[in-house]
Amino acid sequence: MHVRTSSRHFRTLGTGTIALSVGLGLLAGGLGTPHTASAAPQAPSVAAVRTNVTVSRTVTVEAATSTRVVTAAQPIGARVVTEAARHKGKPYVFGAVGPNRFDCSGFTLYVYKKTVGKKLPHKANLQQKYGKAISKAKARPGDLIIIRRGSYGIHAAIYAGNGKMWSAPRTGKPVSKQRIWSSNYVVRRLA
C-alpha cells in the first residue's frame, strides 16, 4: 500500500500532539470504513480511531484539495467470486475442469484451486465433505454450495450473495450467476 503523508496538519489530544495526515489516519485504523480526514478540530478518542481495522475495502480519503483512493487487499471470498464471474458465458461440458469449459464440480474445483489453492475432488457429492460446515444464514460470498437430493450432493456452485450462486448449470447453459434453485443444500467454507 502506498501512502503519502504530510506533517502540516496537527491535532491535540490530551497532553500530547499527534501529527494528523492522510497516512496516519489510514495507519491508525481508518481502513474500517470510508471516511473523510481533515484538520478540523474534533476530539475523537484514540480508542475510536483504532477500532474496526480491516484491509479489505477501498477507502477514499480527502485532505486539503486532493483526493486519494487506496485499494487494500481483496478478501478471500471476494477473490473467489471475482474468479467465478470471470468465467461467465463459458460452456458446460460434462467432465470438463476448465479453463475454457466446465461441468459443475469442475467449475468449483478450478475456481478454488486458482484462488485459494484448495484441491477438491471432481464430484459434487465428494466436495460436500471438504471445508467447514456453515449454516445457510451465515453463508458468505465465496462459500461452496452443494445442492443435494436427500443427503447426496448432485450440484456444486459458489455462493455469490443474496440467494444467488455462480454455477456451470447443465448442458446448453453456460456458466452464470443464478438463484439457488433448491432449498436442500449445504454450505461449506473453504477459505
UniProtKB/TrEMBL annotation:
Coiled coil: none annotated. Residues 74-191 form the NlpC/P60 domain. Pfam families: NLPC_P60 (PF00877). SUPFAM superfamilies: Cysteine proteinases. InterPro entries: NLP_P60_dom (IPR000064), Papain-like_cys_pep_sf (IPR038765), PG_Endopeptidase_C40 (IPR051794). It comes from the Bacteria. Keywords: Hydrolase, Protease, Thiol protease. Belongs to the peptidase C40 family. This is C40 family peptidase. It comes from Actinoplanes hulinensis.
